[in-house]
TrEMBL record, chain A:
Keyword set includes Glycosyltransferase: no
Gene name of the record: dhaM
GO annotations of cellular component type: membrane
Catalytic activity: dihydroxyacetone + phosphoenolpyruvate = dihydroxyacetone phosphate + pyruvate
Domain PTS EIIA type-4, first and last residues per copy: 3-125
EC number: 2.7.1.121
Keywords: Kinase, Transferase
Protein's name in the database: phosphoenolpyruvate--glycerone phosphotransferase
The protein's assembly and partners: Homodimer. The dihydroxyacetone kinase complex is composed of a homodimer of DhaM, a homodimer of DhaK and the subunit DhaL.
Automatic annotation (TrEMBL), chain B:
Keyword Transferase recorded: yes
DhaL domain span: 6-200
Upper classification of the organism: Bacteria, Bacillati, Bacillota, Bacilli, Bacillales
Gene3D superfamilies on file: 1.25.40.340
Protein encoded by which gene: dhaL
Annotated metabolic or biological route of this protein: Polyol metabolism; glycerol degradation
Catalytic reaction list: dihydroxyacetone + phosphoenolpyruvate = dihydroxyacetone phosphate + pyruvate
A molecular function (GO) term: glycerone kinase activity
Pfam family of the protein (one): Dak2
Protein name (Swiss-Prot/TrEMBL): phosphoenolpyruvate--glycerone phosphotransferase
Stored SMART domains: Dak2
Keywords: Glycerol metabolism, Kinase, Transferase
Organism the protein comes from: Terrihalobacillus insolitus
Subunit structure: Homodimer. The dihydroxyacetone kinase complex is composed of a homodimer of DhaM, a homodimer of DhaK and the subunit DhaL.
Chain's role: ADP-binding subunit of the dihydroxyacetone kinase, which is responsible for the phosphoenolpyruvate (PEP)-dependent phosphorylation of dihydroxyacetone. DhaL-ADP is converted to DhaL-ATP via a phosphoryl group transfer from DhaM and transmits it to dihydroxyacetone binds to DhaK.
One GO BP: glycerol catabolic process
Length: 125, 206
């Protein structure tokens, strides 16, 4: 069964990996991929890393992107535009940790991309 | 004014020189109200741009500025990557098929670039961001079909200095609220270098 993929975008590789660990404790099937730090693993974000994570997370049911601060959102949007896919969406103004956790749980229930995004929005608005 | 591949290459080289020479200054400005990476990120990004543009051949200003955009987006790491990257990408799309780029084509390109920056950063004028330099420069270009390059530089400089008294409501500086007042916006300073470099190229071309 295919699931909506989750991408974690953080300025810090450790933060992205740490959140993935938390999600993996409960959700083992849902694709969760990280794009933490710059290409040199410094603090920052990288469009190329985000694009690669989207590709890995995409099992055919779409991908939802979560981000932490400033440039992470901008680079997430750039990556979505470059993907030229309508099945890649950014979870705007939603918390990276709690939002992606809820997203992964909803994805694990077999929901569609729009359903997962709506559920995450509902949980935090 | 008129810009061709050669003059835009000169523009980018001058801009890179200013960024490399002022790397510590840009960083110190960003340490005051941001995350302190503006100088390092811009220096890395524009060095990569120069590495790319000096080893490539370009037939049009559009092709050249597109390469600048893609390099900045992939190599900068901080907010300036997607912002300046988007600006150059929109400029590139706008001046496609318009070589050499004349005043009207360039002004339209700057308009598109500013729209792109605002869309990407969700910022308006008066919020202590690079928009506060790009918007007055655009108005200057719209109002003056012929101008002395020094006036363009002066416009950008005054605009940059005006960011000092603004309270930030975008970017990392927004977390500081009123404590962001009294400091120049680092992105506005790098944008000043961009238009100062352009003014120098136009001056030399006369």
């Amino acid at each position: 069964m295919a699931y909506v993929g989750i991408v974690l975008i953080s300025h810090s590789p450790k933060v992205a990996e740490g959140i993935k660990d938390i999600i993996r404790q409960v959700m083992k099937e849902v694709p969760v991929e990280t794009a933490g730090g710059t290409d040199d693993h410094e603090i920052g974000t990288s469009v190329e890393k985000i694009q690669a994570a989207i590709e890995r997370a995409d099992g055919g049911k779409g991908v939802l992107l979560f981000y932490d601060l400033g440039s992470a959102m901008m680079n997430a949007e750039v990556a979505v535009e470059l993907s030229e896919s309508e099945d890649v969406k950014v979870a705007v103004d939603l918390p990276l940790l709690e939002g992606s956790y809820v997203g992964a749980v909803e994805s694990g229930m077999g929901k569609s991309l729009d359903e997962v995004l709506a559920a995450v929005k509902k949980a935090f608005k | 004014m008129e810009l061709n591949v050669q003059s835009v290459l000169k523009w980018i080289e001058k801009l890179n020189d200013k960024i490399q020479n002022n790397k510590e200054y840009l960083t110190s400005l960003d340490q005051a109200i941001g995350d302190g990476d503006h100088g390092i990120n811009m220096a890395r990004g524009f060095q990569e741009v120069i590495n790319k543009t000096t080893t490539s051949q370009y037939d049009t200003v559009s092709d050249l500025t597109k390469d600048v955009a893609m390099t900045l987006m992939s190599k900068v790491g901080g907010a300036s990557g997607p912002l300046y990257g988007t600006a150059f990408l929109k400029l590139s799309m706008s001046v496609k098929g318009k070589d050499p780029v004349d005043h009207d084509a360039f002004t339209a390109g700057v308009q598109e670039a500013l729209n792109g920056i605002q869309q990407r950063g969700k910022a308006n004028e008066g919020e202590k961001t690079l928009v506060d330099v790009w918007a007055p420069v655009l108005r200057f270009l719209q109002e003056n079909s012929e101008f002395e390059p020094g006036k363009l530089e002066e416009t950008a400089k005054v605009a940059m200095e005006s960011t000092k008294d603004i309270i930030a409501i975008r970017g990392r500086a927004a977390y500081l609220k009123e404590r962001s007042k009294g400091h120049l916006d680092p992105g506005s300073v790098s944008s000043f270098y961009l238009f100062q470099s352009l003014a120098e190229v136009l001056q030399e071309g006369e």
